[in-house]
Amino acid sequence: MFRVAGIRLAVHGSFLLLLAWVATQGWAEEGWAGAAANVAVVCILFTCVVLHELGHSLTARRFGIGVRRILLLPIGGMAEFEAIPRQPRAELLITLAGPAVNFAIVLLLLPFVPYRQFNLNDGLPVNLTGLGLALFYLNLIMGGFNLLPVFPMDGGRILRALLAMHRPYLEATKWAVNIGKVGAAAGVVYMGFIQGHFLSALLFSFIFVAGDMEYRAVQRQAQAEVDWLLIMQRMKAIEEYRKSREPAADLSDGPN
What we know:
Blueprint: E1 2-4, E2 7-11, H1 13-62, E3 67-73, E4 76-81, H2 88-109, H3 128-146, H4 154-164, H5 169-194, H6 198-252
Parallel strand pairs: 2-3
Antiparallel strand pairs: 1-2, 3-4
């Protein structure tokens, strides 16, 4: 679509359906004003998402990892790296950079927004104060939510990086995924059956499945690395055997 800091920003087609849906909801409640307000809130939210993903992406580039694009989806954003950071320290810093951007925005806004004077349940004023409050709360919620230890969210990746400092990468991934599955399942039960927020429950369901998919991808990569190592060892053994046979061949070709 276009580039931000040299990184391609793409929007999934289903994101347009999200805009259409929130606009329809706003129109049903307050006409054009409601539709415009709902679309504006979504745009503000995804601006924060882009900044969050830029935190990941720019830090990844500092570690020499290329970034294919940032993809915006109805459930959030995703920075697509050309390689998975396998060094625990690199993964830890790259992962922390996303929530750090959100909390930095919160700290910058803290002196200017009267957050103690407003109740979110009563709505926000439609003015600059309301815009500041929206940015304040959206970044606070986004940063905190992403730190939940539910793989493959940022909190789960931070957990894997910490575990990988003391155990093999695949084992660390398995532990992080299993812990994340428990957290995601709890999120589905709490948000879906207790709070009745079925969209949030659907998000936790997606997280549950995504964690398992990434573990299988890491597992396949680990197996491919083992297979490649075995091939290299066999090639080395064949080369050493060939070299060991060369002197005998030279002697057989000499004078009788």
